Amino acid sequence: MQPDNLINSLGRDLKQRFGHKVHKLTIDADFTCPNRDGSLGLGGCTFCNNASFSAKTNTQLSIRDQLETSKPGMRAKKYLAYFQAYTNTYAEVAVLKQMYEEALQVTDIVGLCVGTRPDCVPDSALQLLAEYQQQGAEVWLELGLQSAFDSTLERINRGHGFAAYQDAVRRAHQYGLKVCTHLIIGLPGEQPEQSLITLERVLQEGCEGLKLHPLHIVRGSQMARQWKRGEIQALEMDDYIRTAGEMIRRTPWEVVLHRVTATARRPTLLAPDWCDNRWPSYMGIQDYLQQHGGQASALGRPSLIQTA
Questions:
Q1: 291 phi/psi in degrees, rounded to 5
Q2: In the chain, which residue ranges form alpha helices assigned H by DSSP?
Q3: What number of CA atoms fall less than 13 Å from residue 102's CA on the CB side?
Q4: CA separation for the pair 135, 117 (Å, rounded)
Q5: How far is CA 291 from the centre of its chain?
Q6: Distance, CA of 120 to chain centre
Q7: End-to-end CA distance of the chain, in Å?
Q8: Three-state DSSP class for 182?
Q9: Distance CA 2, CA 136 (A)
Q10: Is 196 helix (H, G, I), strand (E, B) or coil?
Q11: What mean pLDDT is predicted for residues 185-199?
């Protein structure tokens, strides 16, 4: 089975619909987060040092300049502006409108991907994004859920529960928006079976896209201190490949997989070592799916992941 038949990736989906390659260009629009600025909490999620997840971080550049300087070497004809760092709906709607439209006015930008928290998506922001979609823009609302277990969300100081996610998805769908849900595999206290349950709960709520991430332990995070004290263990690559593979096999084909693994940069990355290069885990997932079946192949079948 060829890779294109194993996973309904975002690149595959966009190429089918646009007729050519469409790539994401990452933006840091200098947003913060209510879980960091004191309005909800301080210190953020225990895993969080957001600079480690952004390929390019240069808030001295305007949104337009960030997009233009990211284009060279991308080998795509069209692009999506990805508002990635922190909570990109956490501002007055007039400010959001100015930022989003600055991105959409850049040549060859055909849409927006907006990363945010489930508890930070007021109807005014959803309506604004829906208006861009009605005007022909490709729009994705990317919600960082990470886990459907409230006990896990509390443990990692997420600042919201699963109910906030359910509400955000319901309202986003009322506006006709597509939702991409971010999930982290390997969170402290969770077993692989819980990742499968999280997936089931997310699919029950309805979503159009998924992003899977291995847990990174990065400098400057509370989790880094826990790891140094031996309180949590780094995720093994084989465990990630197996769990991610089973989640992909249980994902309906029409759900677009925006990402199936991720990296963090050194020296920010502390553990696991294999997360400094995405290709070994990505190829491992491809091999796993080649052997066990691709996306949607396990629907209705019992899990291959057994309780330890």
A1: -80, -40
A2: 3-6, 10-18, 63-70, 93-104, 123-134, 150-155, 162-174, 192-205, 222-228, 237-249, 278-292
A3: 18
A4: 25
A5: 26
A6: 16
A7: 31
A8: strand
A9: 32
A10: helix
A11: 95
Using alpha carbons only, what angle is made at residue 40 by residues 35 and 41, rounded to the nearest 5 degrees? 55
Indicate the angle between helix axes 237-249 and 278-292, nearest 10 degrees: 50
Task: Write out the H or E segment, with its range, that includes residue 185.
Answer: strand 178-185
Q: Report the chain's C-alpha Rg in angstroms.
A: 18
Tokens for 70, please give them: 């990211």
Cα–Cα separations (whole angstroms), residue 59 to 27, 31, 62, 239: 9, 10, 7, 36
134 burial level (CB within 10 Å; 0-12, 13-18, 19+): exposed
Cα–Cα distance, 6 to 251 (Å, whole number) = 11
As a whole number of angstroms, the distance between CA 258 and CA 125 comes to: 22
| DSSP tag of 168 | H
CA distance 28 to 12: 25
Q: Are strands 178-185 and 138-146 parallel, antiparallel or unpaired?
A: parallel
Structure tokens at 48: 């969080």
From the list 156, 264, 169, 165, the residue with the least C-alpha distance to 216 is 264
Q: What tokens appear for 266 in the block?
A: 């050194």
Its sign, for the CA torsion 3, 177, 263, 29, is positive
CB 78 within 8 A of CB 25: no
Q: 50 or 136, which is more confident?
A: 136
Strand partners, 78: 22
pTM confidence score: 0.90
121-147 tens-digit pLDDT: 999 999 999 999 999 999 999 999 999
Question: 9: which 2 tokens?
Answer: 């990736």
